[in-house]
Amino acid sequence: MAGISGHWAFVFGVLGNIVSFIVFLSPIPTFYKIYKKKSTEGYQSIPYVVALFSSMLWIYYAFLKTNTTLLITINSFGVFIETIYVGVYLFYAPKKSRVQTVKMLLLSVVGGFGAIILVTQFLFKGAVRGQVVGWICLVFSLCVFVAPLGIVRKVIKTKSVEYMPLLLSVFLTLSAVMWFFYGLLLNDINIAAPNVLGFIFGILQMVLYAIYSKKEKAILKEQKLPEMQKPAVIVIDENNNKKLPELTQEQIIDIVKHGLLVCSDKVNLAKCPHDTKCVVKAANVENTPKLQTVEV
Question: DSSP secondary structure string, 101-168?
Answer without folding.
Answer: HHHHIIIIIIIIHHHHHHHHHHH--HHHHHHHHHHHHHHHHHHHHHTTHHHHHHHHHHT--TTS-HHH
